[in-house]
Amino acid sequence: MAEDLDRVSLTLPPDMTDQLDGIVEDWDYASRSEAARDALRDFFTTYEWERGDETRHYGTIVIAHEHDHDSDVAGRLQTIQHEYADVVTSVQHIHLSEDRCMETLVVDGTAGEIDELANRLRAIGGVKQVKVVVVGGDSGADGRAQTDHGHDHGHDGHGQPGHEH
User: Which end of the chain is more exposed for a tag (fewer CB within 10 A), N or C?
Assistant: First the structure.
């Protein structure tokens, strides 16, 4: 391996070792260590998220809602998405049935920003379910996202995500 690694010993009960070995095999991990590193990355992200620090996170917010023109759920969702244009980087709207829709928001923000957005969306009448999935992000010395990483995010020149109505 090219990277410098520290050796850590881990003691597990046999049933956990058996389960870990099964996952290593099923998911084609190269080793127990690689699986443990993967699990620890998720553990660290969860810890940072729950601390609510200024670490930048990337992820999705999935919203299931009624498709009811009378209540204007879609319009209220869109208004909030515009209020959080610095956090919401893209939106996908899917018609699940004649009366039910799903939106997937790709987000980039601190735990507090993403959590606040999710709670605002949950509070809208007609919203049936909101799920947040986040992954850790790179952060600079100030905890903010590293934005100069070699590709365009489709912003409209005013810091807003590029999109059509």
Answer: C
pTM for this prediction: 0.68
Residues 6 or more apart from 42 whose CB is under 8 A from it? Answer: none
Q: What integer pLDDT is reported at residue 67 of this predicted model?
A: 84
Give the range of the structural domain holding residue 33, as residue numbers without chain letter: 14-51
In 10 A of CB 78, how many CB atoms? 15
Kindly list the distances between the CA atom of residue 165 and the CA atoms of 2, 75, 78, in Å, as whole numbers in the listed order: 48, 11, 10
Whether 117 contacts 77, CB under 8 Å: no
Residue 41 shares a structural domain with residue 18? yes
